[in-house]
Amino acid sequence: MRENIYAPSLAIIKKVRDEAEGVKTFTLEFKDLAIRKAFDYRPGQFGEVTIFGTGEAPISITSSPVNKGYLELCVAEVGRVTRALHLKQEGEVIGVRGPYGNGFPFNEVEGKDILFVAGGIGLAPLRSLINQMFTERGKFGKLSILYGARYPGLLCFKDDLKRWAGLENSQVLLTVDVADDSWQGNIGVVGSLLAKIEVNLENTVAFVCGPPIMIHFVILDLLKMGFKEDRIITTMERRMECGLGKCGHCNIGVKYVCQDGPVFSYQELRELGENV
Amino acid sequence: MKTLDKTELSKFLEGLRADFRVITPLQEGEDLLFGEFDSSKLAVNFTGRPIIPPKEYLFPQQERLFTFTAEEGDRVEVKAYLNEEKQVIWGIRPCDLCGIKTLDSIFLSNYVDTYYQARRENTILMGLNCNQACETGFCNSLQTGPFAKDSFDLIFTDLANRYLVEVGSKAGEAMIARRANLFTEASDEDKGEANRLEEKSKQGFKPLFDMKGVDNKLAQAWDDRLWAEESDSCILCGGCNFVCPTCHCFNIEDIKAGRESERVRCWDSCQLGGFTQMAAENTRQTQGERLRQRIYHKFSYTPAKYDGAIGCSGCGRCIEVCPSNIDITHILERVIKR
What we know:
By secondary structure, chain A is of the alpha/beta class. Chain A has seven helices and 15 strands.
């Protein structure tokens, strides 16, 4: 038998949680016990998710490798496949193949203070990394999480945010672009939170994830603060079909975002070309 | 090295049909196309190459990957479809052999593409050297032709009343052994004649450009206005990609019919606006960027990523097919002359 690189494995939806407006988090369990045990991944990697009869879409994994036996995907309803996924109920079956992509650096940033800057659903892949870092807490210095959304109803992972804020040597700052009556916190884009924290530039690595426009401006802010280009880690979003470097859609320069990314340092991004 | 009398070619190909699907160039009305061998349509004395490359026999335009059948409860039956039919393709021009070599580099490295591999491992490639330059081909400039140096199981050279047949692999040797009585040992004269034909053929090509350093030139041409200018007349038909022997980009789509659905992959084109379209954003907005991607992918990215693999075989089909006269050789000349 040939190993079929395109074959999706069946996964049962064990839980569906309303995460934010138009955003749901799905807890999945592979039907096959062997696959459940063997499916290992790094924070920042993604899976190709199948809705049988509708198609596939690349979705980043939001659970953490320390969570054994299940996967969590946090999905905004934005396209054909994600709309079909949002209609799925607990107990229904979908397909998953992967994991794909390089994932975030982890051992490489040991001993550093870590600054996370996330916008909207961009917190989903970072949550995987943040939870792993909190699990291996001793390996890292201060963990700062700056998180923003367009308005309060779009903030994801509120329970995690509360929990992280209460942990030792960590801080969580939230903001929204537009407040409503319920909102007591900061108002402004997520980059505005950078002025509110103290950063030891010599020993800090920044992870930035969110919509392209937010990533663009946050990186400019970080550079202005004095961050070196290789100390800014971010992710790229591109059209993907295969996840395996074959279908050509995510190709930028000699790189394939699905295989060589989706995680790049800002320095690597600049070298990619194509005005990214 | 052997020779095969031209009158025996049909007999040789016919004999293979017991164990193989045999694909050859066929004269279909005014068109020259690859198709299932038929001695009444077999094209042997043609200049140039069939209008569509033989790529589709290894990487079909549309290919079923799976069927999914929804069962009761949480069960879905996933069934894969691999094509492992044995086939011989005869009459492949050197440019198209080069195309297959490039597809091999892409599909058979890193993650091995299951579907391509199943077909490729069951395919015998029999080439046919080009004694005459064709109208739009520029293989001579890329050194992918007009005579093939590798990437074949057998290669035929037309010596008027007979073929010189060179062996490129054990599988090719076995093909000859099946009908050894049809073949004769080649003489030094036969080989000398083939060499003369090769030289003569090369002289028939326009001296276009020297490919050396094109990658460096491209590196400096990124922001040039030539991309916008050359793509200005593009009508977004995707024809250049669909007739290309090296283009390998594809989509994966599900087609639903009740409880059963089919997953297919089909060719895609980087020249179409939807190629980079995501739910919320399109990352290549202009036709200039799309044309630039096509040229860089062929002449810069593919060689860099796949150890010198050639992203363009010089077959010239994209020039022939383009309704707006966008000419890849003209673009390359502009890049080189900058």
